[in-house]
Amino acid sequence: MSETDVEEIHLRPCEPGRLTPAELRTLFLFEKLTDDQLAWIADHGCTMHAPAGSLVLREGDPAEKFFVLLSGTVSLTRRVGQDDVQTTRTEQRGVYMGATQAYIRDDGVQYTYMASMRALDDADFFVLSAADFGWMMREWFPMAIHLLEGLYLGMRNTQAAIGERQRLTALGALSAGLMHELNNPAAAASRATGALRMRVAGMRHKLGMLAAGKVAADRLDALVELQEEVIEKAAKAPALTALQAADREDELGDWMQERSITHAWDLAPVFAQGGLDARCLDDIEAKVGSPELLDQAIHWIGYALETEQLMSDIEDATGRVSSLVSAAKQYSHLDRAAHQWIDVHTGLDSTLVMLGHKIGAGVTVVREYDRGLPEVPAHPAELNQVWTNIIDNAVQAMNGAGTLTVRTYREDDHVVVAIGDTGPGVPEELRKRVFEPFFTTKPVGEGTGLGLDISYRIIVNGHGGDIVLRSEPGDTRFLVRLPTSEPPSE
């Protein structure tokens, strides 16, 4: 709360009986009521004076009174982060505010004022208690109340049911994506393990053939030593371009064919990928010494190279699984405190991993991180919902092709996360509505279902930050500002 909000509300006491039924009839809210109804309202209501600058009601307080403006100017404000945003300013006689939902029977629910109201100059009000206003509405207008209750409670229950299903759908989509991402490295590891078993068996067979060929002990030792050198060289071999690899395979294949090596063109890619060239094969030939054993020696070393490559594939695949599990744990923040000091980059990276299946190969992800940013106080699981929603919307806007840019930087005492896409942009007439509940530019069934309105509430209400949209064709950005310090307690 600001200093002006926490001041005591200094209002003159209610003065019963100051409005007559005839005066009440001049107010548009009561003009159609009968004389008896107006007399009842006059008996149960009172007038109240509010000096200029006084706070008449405060957002979030129990809604105990129903106000009708008789004279003066008032403003209604909503709390957004650390700021009060004026939503209405009026001097229209007869406008009403306060306990406007007192007629709804909803056991266990305590209604509160939805906004704060301040008198901008001396103002007078006609006031009914919430209990009297609720009784009056239910007794005099039962059919209307049934319709209004049905509309209000029906919309609330429908929203709750649909919201739950949308969250389950979004969770299912994320889970399916994670399973898809896990399946790829798991399947690769399984395939590599099967191939590795075959290669090891072939290596044992070739080693037996070499031993049966009565290779001199010194030469066999030299061959084993050469194998280790080849494997070490393969581990340090630089990556080749497609053209370089093709040229290397041709060179090695020709060398092997000249010496009648069996399956020469199957072995050539293995040696090329291992970083070997014709000079290495010359060394092998010299150390083997016997042309009759060269074929078995080449195959043996080829099996050794394939074995190393397959083990590297298994290591990469299992490392990928481990990374995905770690990202999922970071994303869900299992076994962690709900509120903590966090590095925003951790959540951004885990969200990008979780949405990898949706982002696809056609979208280039650019990370422009300022790693020197301070940690921020936050609910990380909630922030990940925001990143998920914005990134998913951005990817859909680009229709599978474009550039997704995630940038972080500092702005005064805030950390800013900017998520941009190269999609067609949001038309100007829609930009002001993107944070409204239920608003969407997508066809039915598309999107996360979480809604930018929820993202707005998480950032603004839950973290005291701000979220804005800037958009033009080819450059749409959501800017999320998070304070670097805990908001002051109210």
Structure described in brief:
The chain is of the alpha+beta class and 490 residues long. Helix content is 50%, strand content 19%.
What is the overall silhouette?
Answer: rod-shaped
Q: Give a short account of the largest sheet.
A: 5 strands, antiparallel
Please mark out the parts with pLDDT under 50 across 5 or more consecutive residues, or reply none. 1-10
Give the topology string: H per helix, E per strand.
Answer: EHHEEEEEEEEHHHHHHHEHHEEHEEHHEE
Describe this structure in words.
- There is one protein chain.
- It is built from 14 helices and 16 strands.
- The chain has 490 residues and is α+β, with helices and mostly antiparallel strands.
- A 5-stranded antiparallel sheet has the order 1-2-9-4-7.
- The protein is rod-shaped.
Keywords for this entry:
490 residues, alpha+beta, Jelly Rolls, Heat Shock Protein 90, 3 domains, five-stranded antiparallel beta sheet, five-stranded mixed beta sheet, rod-shaped, disordered N terminus
